What we know:
Elements: E1 2-5, E2 22-23, E3 26-27, H1 28-37, E4 43-47, E5 61-64, H2 75-90, E6 95-100, H3 108-120, E7 125-130, E8 133-142, H4 146-154, H5 160-166, E9 170-174, H6 187-196
Amino acid sequence: xxxxxxxxxxxxxxxxxxxxxxxxxxxxxxxxxxxxxxxxxxxxxxxxxxxxxxxxxxxxxxxxxxxxxxxxxxxxxxxxxxxxxxxxxxxxxxxxxxxxxxxxxxxxxxxxxxxxxxxxxxxxxxxxxxxxxxxxxxxxxxxxxxxxxxxxxxxxxxxxxxxxxxxxxxxxxxxxxxxxxxxxxxxxxxxxxxxxxx
Length: 198
């Protein structure tokens, strides 16, 4: 199950939804969807509110971020929602493949490398890292982790990299300058992406 994390509100981008930022003539959500569709049977997008633009693609499933006491908790809430959905609908052996909506150079080959590692050993989750920096939004997780992840979040854990550490996630290393991890947070990032891209 391909999962797009789309909870960013784009405050540093003037309040523009990151998913709707256009890159190379298409909104970012479409670019990420196309890449995930190459390796996933189903595409899910997780965000605080159902996006208006979702009506453009009736095949994408929307999930609301899991909240704690009515408050957003960032990517951990998106992971919880996606794992819970996969576990309830497809069982503990289902796999979710996560990617953030603001990564214009993301390619499915990145996630394929994580899936190879997931299936090569008895891992429950595999995350990407660049140099010595973990990239927790780019991961593959077995749906059977849903109860453990939800317990960790309920106990106060919010950071994806620490959640991954608690459950013993494996890592796959990539070059520190791998553009597939580049993400857009500011107008300057967007300009740089346009200079670097096609």
